[in-house]
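Lab notebook page, bench 4
Experiment: in silico fold of construct C2
Operator: M.H.
Input chain length: 569 residues
Purpose: comparison with the prior construct
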Amino acid sequence: MADLPVRPLVSRLYMADAFGESRLRRYMFTPESTFFASESAIYRRNVSRQSSKSAIHKADTLKNGLIVVWPESGAQSETKRASRFIPPFSVDVMARWRYLAVTRRNVFKTRAAFHTVLSAPYDGAGNVNSKRKKEEGDMGQLDSGNAAWILTSASLVFLMTPGVAFFYGGMVRAKAVLNMMIMEAAALSVTMVIWVLWGWSIAYAGTSVGGVFGDPATGFLLKDSMVSDGGVFTSASLNSNNYPVSVDVAFQSAFAMITVALICGAIAERVKYSTWMIFVALWITFDYAPLAHMVWNGGLLSADGAISQAIGAAAHDFAGGTVVHINAAVAALVIVLIIGKRKGFGTQPFRPHNVPFVMLGAFLLWFGWFGFNAGSAFAANGTAGYAWVSTSAATAAAMLSWGFTEKIRTGHYTAMGAASGIVAGLVAITPAADVVSPLWAIVLGAIAGVLTCLACGLKFKLGYDDSLDVVGVHGVGGFTGTVLIGFFGEGTGLFAGGDWKQLVVQLIVALVAIIWSAVVTGIIAFALEKTIGWRVTEAQEVGGIDLADQGERAYDFAGTASSVLKEVK
């Protein structure tokens, strides 16, 4: 039979590994309800950072596949259909067909009749394992624990962007706090729209183009991930960890949001809101999504990529040392160099207007980071638990080491320093949370706290106005954590039983990420500068960007004073 269009019909892939002839006959339908698909027509999915290792991807290597579809029309009952069996194939032929795909809607209609077929034991690594405990879940059956954990993690990561809003909002002067918070709101809103349109497809869903980006059309408007079931939208499939791909879409969108949200801290108090919104849309499309594809979806910078293969060591970025922190920091630096300094930079102090806001933001970030790191295990398992522990250990060490460094330099333990140290530790452990031992996690955090504290003073020596130290904290912290995997990574790092190869691959991947971000951001930022412009006018900046761009102020002190005077009279 000629190939038929598969994608609109198929929603899940199930293991049917070398079923015996009699077993297949029992669940075979009439010819009009069955058809075959060649390798090119087999339904493929590319849904998560771990998808390249999933059993679903192993379908790509098959030369033939069996597609069974239960029609939704017709008056015949499922029981009657199930009695109309045919024995068209021999055992030898059927042994070569390993994957069975069924329409999602009819799985629910025929769950009892076909439970045996749809419950082939699966060990999570592409192998049938009859000894696997039943409670761990079978391929094709929803793991509600994993689904709940990843959806919770997505919500925690989403919370990080409001956390950044408070963190950055407290650091700026009172006349710019609303502008900072609305820029964070734009990071949420614009990113989400772009993610639904084509960002998801470029990063995770589309067919890879040269290992650099995915085809934006494959998952446009999430058509690869969401299906309508009786007028109600649901996930098109389960991924390799047996939770809905729709949850992956949510989780990864939150990562994109927080990444772009970090950038605006460097350009605080002087950038037009309209230009920022346009930049976010362009940057997510041309910078973030391709880099996420390269690192987390089997691309050039991934563990299976060309660089890792050439060196003989697998590059590692657990939760975003390169994709999130190095990427955002380099982008921030490039924009700062293009738009220039704030008026008064280097000659007058720019003191934070609300330190409690800063501390609140830091605590929210620490809380949200459990979704960021522990959620990147993509399952409610021991790795997630350890990521929680290593994240907190490194963060605590970084806060303390920043404080000690600050005490030596200035004679004080400041609240601003404690908040910045917390964030620095969170950033540094992000790429390494699953591969460094508890001891090395503490050491990594302590090193990052010292280095980032010292790095934040470089802007005054080098003359770039990174308003809220995005480069010093996220750039230096992200690079430190990424590179230190080459020293502390269990079994691969130079100090943890490995050799020099892991260090080399981490350095190269970090440098390529820096170059990528610098080039792409530079093109976007320069184009915007030469067209609509980045800066508000000098008068608007001096008077306060909140009043100039938003037409309002965060604190109505004049109104309060006037009200008091009226009451006294």
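Observations: The radius of gyration is 27 Å. Residues 486 and 503 are 4 Å apart (CA to CA).
Next step: discuss at group meeting.
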